[in-house]
# Entry
Amino acid sequence: MLNQRRTTNILLLVIVVPLVFYLLKILSFIFIPLILSMFIALLFLPLMRELGRRNIPKFISIVVILITVSAIVYGGIELIKLSSKQILESDTEFFTKAELKINDLRYYLLNNFGIQLQHEKNLLSQFFEKENIGSTFGFLRSFFTTMLMTIFFVVLWLAESINVHNLLNNTLLKQKYTSIKAFMKIEKDLIKFIKVKFMVSLLTGIFTGLMCVFFDVSFPIFWGLFAFAINFVQMVGSFISVILLSIFAFVELDPTSTLVFFIFSITGVQVLFGAILEPIFMGKSFSINVIAVLVMLMFWGFLWGIPGLIMAIPITVFIKIILEQFPSTRLIASLLSGNETKIEKL
# Structure
């Protein structure tokens, strides 16, 4: 009888798990803003509590938080406008150099690999064809729709129309004390992760921009913003930032020791903040196995694209904390964290 029940449970699991993943993929336009808004709301919950202790109405507290978020977004937009203005007002010297070096690359590809690009058009202009404009507007429409839905869900989370604690208690944990304990740990760890990640990304962006200024690489504000944004993609973002900026610097700087020192400098910035300071600030209790990080990045990136890559680690932390609440799944949680001592105790 027990064997039959176990077999039935396994079969149900085999059916349900792919179905859940399929729904997550199909309904990504709902789940992405919902989960993203939950992380944002968790970040501002301590401020909500503090305002509540001072007898400030919840409505006013939500307005204060929305104004704060709007101010942060406005500052980001102004920086983007500043970097765009810097690029648009630049002279054509860089683009001339880029065209010359890309032409050299084109001849190299043609002679060595037989790859031939169009000669009758400016090479850079081939990336900005009219047929690509539609997809650009489609992306912007999707982006702003996601942002509006995220803001809507943030208001619901903060107003407790959607209550994380009650959700955990009624669905997964079913025990009041356990759900409170899990919620407090989720809130503490995710707030810590978001704060540390934001500060590390900010410092990475600032120092990347300063390296561009020091080595006289064009568009330092743009590259600082790019390094800041891409750093939120765990592990992968650092490689992308260094590779793209190195290729860009190759166009501007002569292939001498200056270029080598610049590449070493931006790599050093990524290593210092991403590989040394970030783990120190996160602490040992927050550690996640490198293999688990890579698997989660691939999985959520496949499901949700760039938003999935950004939210992969917070989602993994959320899953790990939930798994720690059940004796039967604590081993999996320990494997995710890479904590061998816990595995031995189990």
